Amino acid sequence: MHGLLSLLIWLPIAAGVVVLLLGDRNVALARWLALLATLVTLALALPLWTQFDPTTAALQFPESLPWIARFNARYALGVDGISMPLIVLTAFMTVPVVIAAWTVIEKRPAQYFAAFLIMEGLMIGVFAATDALLFYFFWEAMLIPMFLIIGIWGGPRRVYATIKFFLYTFLGSVFMLAALIYMYVKGGDYSIAALQALPLGLNEQRWIFVAFFLAFAVKVPMWPVHTWLPDAHVEAPTGGSVILAAIMLKMGGYGFLRFSLPITPDASAELALPVIALSLIAVVYIGFVALVQQDMKKLIAYSSIAHMGFVTLGAFVIYAIVRNTGHTTGTGMALDGAMVQMISHGLISGALFLCVGVLYDRVHSRQIADYGGVVNTMPVFAAFMVLFALANTGLPGTSGFVGEFLVIIASFRASFWYSFLAAVTLVLGAAYTLWLVKRVVFGAVTSPRVAQLKDLNGREFVVLGALALAVLAVGVWPAPLLRVMQPTMHHLVSQAIATKL
Amino acid sequence: MPETAFTWSTLAPALPEISLVVAICVVLLVDVFAGEKRAGLTSTLTLVALAVCAALTVEYAHVTERTVLLQGMYVADELAYVLKLAGFMVVAVALLYSRRYLVDHNILRGEYYVLALSALLGIFVLVSANSLLTVYLGVELLALSVYAMVAFDRDSGVAAEAAMKYFVLGAIASGALLYGMSLIYGLAGTLDLSELAVRLGTPTSLGVILGVVFVVVAVAFKLGAVPFHMWLPDVYEGAPTSVTLFIGTVPKLAYFALALRLLAYGLGGVTPEWTQMLAPLAVLTLVVGNVVAIVQSNLKRMLAYSTISNVGFIVLGFVAGTADGFAAALYYTLVYVLAALGAFGVILLASRKGFDADRLEDYKGLHQRDPLLAFAMMLLMFSMAGVPPLVGFWAKLRIFQALWETHHLWLVIIAATMSVVGAYYYLRVIKLMYFDDPAGAPAGAAPGAAGVRFALGLNALAALVLGVLPGPLLNLCARVLH
Fold first, then answer.
1. Residue B93, pLDDT score
2. Mind listing the pLDDT tens digit for each residue in A247-263?
3. Half-sphere exposure in the Cβ direction for B12 (13 Å, CA)
4. Is B461 near chain A, with CB under 8 Å?
5. pLDDT tens figures, B414-441
6. Do B397 and A159 lie within an 8 Å CB cutoff?
């Protein structure tokens, strides 16, 4: 269907503008309109999956219009096996965000919904763009609604968190812009395909890799530029945390796969070891940091950083595999693992933040010490929370297992120690997540506030139920997801290990 | 052979200036005889006059190729045409925004409008200058009109102080300009810019370089580049806000043209010399402008330092030294004027009798008091910070590209880093408006004609629309400076 991607981008944005103009005069209308818009977007994203041709790595649903002749930049869209699942994930996750905020947001709800709708369109634009300048345009534009969401509807330290978030990501992105301009001046074309084909010397590749690395490492986020994430997550409203964790972090991983690996393959190979080291530090060290957190959201935030470490590990361990074994067996598995981990982590951390949101709406506290024995008063909720917690630890049968398993097995080909350190997450992840669950959910009721808790209402049940189904579906039967990614990952491996020198 | 007969074809390209002079005389006379009795007559008449002059310009003064008139003193080309139309529009909008402020501060007098028109005339003369003398004439006409406008509020001590500073420092700068011009004239033997362009070339004598130094100093002063920027924050803060709006927007077009005609064209033969002088100026300007703006508590002063940092970008376009760089500087100037027009317009519309919305804390919770103003300010602040999808991003990108093509890698890195530093104080304004609760500021939206608010809304939306579709304006700038 021609124009599907444009529709997916601009429909939520247009709906967001309409909701914004409607204002708070008729909040109910604004709510239903926002929900309708997200459901329609999700419905439109389904043909993207069903009509996707899983046999080719070429860009599908292509669109190309002239945009800025002066920069030779086109309004060019297209999806492949990497971006298509991410777009579907974006469309899927915005629906629970809108439903979860139904009556919870009291201050200017229409603007809240409008901000999320506009952000949904911009995020889909990031994944769908096949022109680097259009990609950068959407990448930066996305910061504005997120900045406002955290700053207006966030917690007590929201101003500090949102300004830190904005400046951190803005600084990283500016270096990416410099690298893009350099390659444009050299090659004359901003389209991603042309950049991927551009011949570059090793020194040029090193600098460009560093520039891209700064931008994407901040977004992922990788240790040590991760410090904005705990603050942003804790202070953001529930919906903001969900979108931040589920989608925005994935853009860093998407950037590595789309830009760093194909455009600077030699520099990526050369600098793969430091990146792997940083990923493993994220997995192990941040896992320990998560263990000592007192704030539920902060714990899940650190857990997100640790899980995203798997994504970058999977992306860059392919070079270690090739160097160690001399051939490419297992590299596809590593990239598959990275990709599945992105999707799975999006679902799981989104669901965990929604669970915390459910508790926060009732008790208005995120401190673990304020909870205990929630299972006694909210058994249905407890069941969901335990499911998502186990998925977070990587229990087989849930989506969390698939990605981690693939990456750990693939890194074994590179080095026993990579695999070992990555597998430490199985212990640490279980430690901090299950300890959280034990303190919050199980045991006897510890405070009168917990004793008065009411179980999930219909709205919350629908949201958590849908996510639970998705987590189980990807965990039990990941084949459809792996199948659509296959040719694209093959192509990416061939690009990533090819040499441009 | 210079044209000596005054026929229609030799004068038609100069129609903007001629019609503007007629307009000034008409407005002055009408104001003297009828302005006292009918309030608002002069302001309406001025707007009408601007519209008529603009229409005449579009109709008769459009030239497609460079035409030199009046014995080599005056040049009419595409650039002059575009800048003059932009000047008409910006002055009209500036006067529109200022009306209620002038009434509230009891300075709504006809002379204000006459001075504004004569400043515009000075800008036009400067934009179309083809001789050192015409350049100076335009600079002085603009400067003197603006000095008087800054001092317009007799009851304000800060305004008088600002006007004095501006006058004294401006006179020194004009003196430097004149001295540099005299050196160049003495060594090159001609005042005509096109002949200067031919006669000056490498190797250059030390005398010419000395002259160029003085000229660069004067241009840097007028633009507000560090270290000749000291007048800017004080004048912007001290002048009545409507005058700040005027001097923060329209003269930038003129000073761009000054730099272009004088440095890029007239002294084009010594481009390596003056680009080398401008490069450290640009770096200093970017650093000082961005860093000092962070500690400001007065919004007008903060916007003054923001002006300085934006001027740094414009100067970077000139440092590139190529036609592409100049086109980038032109685009940046136009985009910046659009954003500054709106930003100062917001300050004007947020002010009311007895409450000047000058300080940053006056904007706390503006989103709750006046959503339209807050939204417009947000769009403009993001545009100045250079965040997509606003047009300011494309302006910065254009400058980076021009610099990279001329191998000024370090300048790009510094400019990019400074623009991130600069993002902080723009974010702070948005934070005050959106994230804070209104405390002590008057509740409710400021009174204002719906038409003016509508114009401000369009102004802010233009920054968004031009940001999503930057092609036409980019092509225009490239075309007029091919």
1. 94
2. 999 999 999 999 999 99
3. 10
4. no
5. 999 999 999 999 999 999 999 888 877 6
6. no
Nearest chain A Cα distance for residue B247, angstroms: 30
Given a contact cutoff of 8 angstroms between Cβ atoms, the answer to whether A400 and A388 are in contact is no
Subunit contact B419:A178, Cβ cutoff 8 A: no
Question: pLDDT by residue (tens digit) across B96-123?
Answer: 999 888 888 888 888 899 999 999 999 9
Find the CB nearest B420 among A152, A158, A170.
A170
Using the predicted structure, report yes or no on whether residue B29 has a pLDDT greater than 60.
Answer: yes
Q: Which residue of B has its CA nearest to A186?
A: B405
Tokens of B204: 């250059």
**What does pTM read for this prediction?**
0.93
Is B106 touching A (CB cutoff 8 A)? no
> Using a CB-CB distance cutoff of 8 angstroms, which residues of chain B are in contact with residue A184?
401
Residues of B in contact with A159 (CB under 8 A): 431, 435
In a 10 Å sphere around its CB, with 0-12 CB exposed, 13-18 middle and 19+ buried, how is residue A365 labelled?
A: middle
Q: What are the φ/ψ torsions at residue A79 (nearest 5 degrees)?
A: -125, 155
B400/A181 Cβ within 8 A: yes
If you count them, how many residues does chain A have?
Answer: 501
Mean of pLDDT over chain B: 89
Q: What is the value of ipTM here, to two decimals?
A: 0.90
- What is the distance in angstroms between the Cα of A267 and the nearest Cα belonging to chain B? 21
Q: Please give the Cα distance from A131 to A111 (Å, whole number).
A: 30
Q: Which residues of A touch B471 (CB under 8 A)?
A: 66-70
CA angle B328/B334/B338 to nearest 5° reads 140
What's the confidence (pLDDT) of residue B267?
A: 84
pLDDT band at B69 (very low <50, low <70, confident <90, very high): confident
pLDDT in tens, A263-302: 999 999 999 999 999 999 988 999 999 999 999 999 999 9
Instruction: Say how far apart CA A234 and CA A232 lie, in whole Å.
Output: 6
Query: What distance in Å separates residue A186's CA from the closest CA in chain B?
Result: 9
Please determine, for residue B202, whether its predicted confidence score (pLDDT) is greater than 70.
no
What amino acid occupies position A456? L
pLDDT tens digits, B241-259: 999 999 999 999 999 999 9
Cβ <8 Å between A170 and B423: yes
pLDDT of residue B2: 54
Contacts of A70 in chain B (CB under 8 A): 398, 471, 474-475, 478
A14 within 8 A of A44, measured Cβ to Cβ = no
Given a contact cutoff of 8 angstroms between Cβ atoms, the answer to whether A423 and A306 are in contact is: no
Cβ–Cβ contact B323 with A under 8 A: no
Would you say A172 and B423 are in contact if contact means Cβ atoms under 8 Å apart? no
Per-residue 3-state assignment (H helix, E strand, C coil) for chain B: CCCCCCCHHHHHHHHHHHHHHHHHHHHHHHHHHHHCCCCCHHHHHHHHHHHHHHHHHHHHCCCCCCEEECCCCEEECHHHHHHHHHHHHHHHHHHHHHHHHHHHCCCCCHHHHHHHHHHHHHHHHHHCECEHHHHHHHHHHHHHHHHHHHCCCCCCHHHHHHHHHHHHHHHHHHHHHHHHHHHHHHHHCCCEHHHHHHHCCCCCCHHHHHHHHHHHHHHHHHHCCCCCCCHHHHHHHHCCHHHHHHHHHHHHHHHHHHHHHHHHHHCHHHHHHHHHHHHHHHHHHHHHHHHHHHCCCEHHHHHHHHHHHHHHHHHHHHHHCCHHHHHHHHHHHHHHHHHHHHHHHHHHHHCECCECCCEHHHHCCHHHHCHHHHHHHHHHHHHHHCCCCCHHHHHHHHHHHHHHHCCCHHHHHHHHHHHHHHHHHHHHHHHHHHCCCCCCCCCCCCCCCHHHHHHHHHHHHHHHHHHHCCHHHHHHHHHHCC
Within an 8 Å CB–CB cutoff, is residue B133 touching chain A? no
